[in-house]
């Protein structure tokens, strides 16, 4: 069996690595270069989407910002899972918001904004502060603006108008204005749905961001909001007739979850499952799209994940910490770029806290800010 993944980054690579023992081959299609590549070593295997689709039994994706010209033939191939509606729901915040409405799950109130008058109307309707997000292409907090006070409105709109003017003419860029949610913290739910509607869920993961980029994820088994998150997942996944791994980011406000956004794919906040769960999110995605039974998601031991941003080297001494696993993506370093991650596991949460302390002491502080703030949370 051969799976084609749209996108040739680290998520395709980690799916490919997990597919090998299942006797499944993964090829990746690099949407930018139009090349078919081996996602493990980046070797070029061929060219062109048509060939890639012809040679694949199943087509899936590792990212949601996929041009319509690629999505259409994938959909027409009849092999595409979770399908173009699911991908668009992750890639276009207007489609996403409409879907959340339709599925009846709680999320931040919003309005679409195309001009200054509509931004003023959004302030009237939703109040301040507002979080303004580009409808397309946003990731790692890019393409976002905050409007805190009325006096900033002109300046913020000038920036947004500039941004919209530079947007590609091929895709219809726009802006979604969201009510600012004064959340307690953020969690995500990663789950998988099979083609017969079976679902499995990992425990909620608590996520900490630095400068809009995920820094640390902590698995939170037995979280009191697990059942609420699973109900919301089910409503969204059923609405999309979803097949594969789906990740949902939430804001926690007291006893209530509000959906922030969807990722119709394996997700950075699920990387801990490689060492912390019976079946990883990557193996479960491959299983789901290939029509195989889903794997158990039971947590094996307390685990957390730390992202490595902008660095392609860390002290070898890290590997002396028991329960530590390094995952490099084999990419060329650029400031802020996701280069790899560290999974850290232990037998107990107390032991995990001790090992995390050891890890923090070995990491260069300027590249891993704010980690010690998380120590008391473990
Ligand atoms: P990702 O890399 O997760 O795809 P993104 O660029 O799509 O990120 P969001 O997840 O929508 O962006 O927003 C980034 C972060 O900004 C959120 O994790 C949250 O901390 C904050 N944020 C977003 N929307 C709101 C909101 N309505 N109220 C308060 N904070 C928000
Ligand atoms: Mg996003
Ligand atoms: Mg997000």
TrEMBL record:
Q: Its catalytic activity?
A: 5-amino-1-(5-phospho-beta-D-ribosyl)imidazole + hydrogencarbonate + ATP = 5-carboxyamino-1-(5-phospho-D-ribosyl)imidazole + ADP + phosphate + 2 H(+)
A GO term, aspect molecular function: 5-(carboxyamino)imidazole ribonucleotide synthase activity
Q: What is its EC number?
A: 6.3.4.18
- Gene3D superfamilies reported for this sequence: 3.40.50.20, ATP-grasp fold, A domain, ATP-grasp fold, B domain
Q: What are the record keywords, sorted?
A: ATP-binding, Ligase, Nucleotide-binding, Purine biosynthesis
List positions binding ATP: 93, 133, 138-144, 178-181, 186, 209, 260-261
Q: Ranges for the ATP-grasp domain? A: 97-290
Task: State the top-level EC class.
Answer: ligase
**Pathway named in the protein's UniProt entry:** Purine metabolism; IMP biosynthesis via de novo pathway; 5-amino-1-(5-phospho-D-ribosyl)imidazole-4-carboxylate from 5-amino-1-(5-phospho-D-ribosyl)imidazole (N5-CAIR route): step 1/2
* Pfam families reported for this sequence: ATP-grasp, PurK_C, RS_preATP-grasp-like
Q: Does the keyword Transferase apply?
A: no
The record's PANTHER family line, in alphabetical order, gives: PHOSPHORIBOSYLAMINOIMIDAZOLE CARBOXYLASE, PURINE BIOSYNTHESIS PROTEIN 6/7, PUR6/7
Assembly and partners are described as: Homodimer.
Q: Which family does the similarity line name?
A: Belongs to the PurK/PurT family.
Briefly state the protein's biological role. Catalyzes the ATP-dependent conversion of 5-aminoimidazole ribonucleotide (AIR) and HCO(3)(-) to N5-carboxyaminoimidazole ribonucleotide (N5-CAIR). Catalyzes the ATP-dependent conversion of 5-aminoimidazole ribonucleotide (AIR) and HCO(3)- to N5-carboxyaminoimidazole ribonucleotide (N5-CAIR).
What NCBIfam families does UniProt report for this protein, alphabetically? PRK06019.1-5, purK
Q: What is this protein called?
A: N5-carboxyaminoimidazole ribonucleotide synthase
Lineage of origin: Bacteria, Pseudomonadati, Pseudomonadota, Gammaproteobacteria, Alkalimonas
């Amino acid at each position: 069996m051969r799976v084609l993944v749209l996108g040739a980054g680290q998520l395709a690579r980690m799916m490919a690595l997990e597919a090998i023992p299942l006797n499944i081959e993964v090829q990746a299609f690099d949407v930018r270069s139009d090349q078919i590549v081996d996602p493990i070593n980046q070797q070029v295997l061929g060219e062109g989407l048509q060939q890639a689709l012809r040679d694949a039994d199943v087509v899936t994706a590792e990212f949601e910002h996929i041009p319509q010209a690629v999505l259409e033939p994938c959909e027409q191939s009849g092999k595409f899972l979770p399908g173009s509606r699911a991908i668009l729901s992750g890639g276009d915040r207007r489609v996403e918001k409409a879907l959340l409405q339709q599925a009846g799950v709680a999320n931040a109130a919003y309005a679409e904004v195309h001009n200054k008058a509509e931004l003023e109307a959004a302030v009237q309707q939703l109040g301040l502060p507002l979080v303004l997000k580009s409808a397309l292409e946003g990731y790692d907090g890019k393409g976002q603006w905050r409007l805190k006070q009325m006096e900033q409105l002109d300046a913020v709109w000038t920036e947004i108008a500039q941004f919209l003017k530079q947007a590609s003419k091929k895709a219809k860029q726009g802006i979604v204005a969201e009510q600012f949610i004064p959340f307690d913290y953020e969690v995500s739910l990663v789950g998988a749905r099979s083609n017969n509607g079976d679902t499995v869920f990992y425990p909620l993961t608590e996520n900490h961001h630095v400068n809009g980029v995920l820094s640390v994820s902590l698995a939170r088994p037995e979280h009191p909001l697990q059942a609420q998150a699973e109900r919301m997942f089910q409503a969204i996944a059923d609405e999309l007739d979803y097949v594969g791994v789906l990740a949902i980011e939430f804001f926690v406000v007291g006893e209530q979850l509000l959906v922030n956004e969807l990722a119709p794919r394996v997700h950075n906040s699920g990387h801990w499952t490689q060492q912390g769960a019976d079946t990883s999110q990557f193996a479960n995605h491959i299983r789901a799209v290939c029509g195989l039974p889903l794997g158990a998601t039971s947590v094996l031991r307390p685990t957390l994940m730390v992202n490595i941003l902008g660095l392609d080297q860390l002290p070898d001494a890290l590997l002396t910490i028991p329960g530590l696993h390094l995952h490099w993506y084999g990419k060329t370093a650029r400031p802020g770029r996701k280069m790899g991650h560290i999974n850290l596991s232990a037998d107990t949460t107390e032991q995990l806290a001790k090992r995390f302390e050891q890890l923090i002491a070995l990491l260069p502080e300027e590249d891993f800010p704010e980690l010690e703030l998380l120590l008391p949370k473990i």
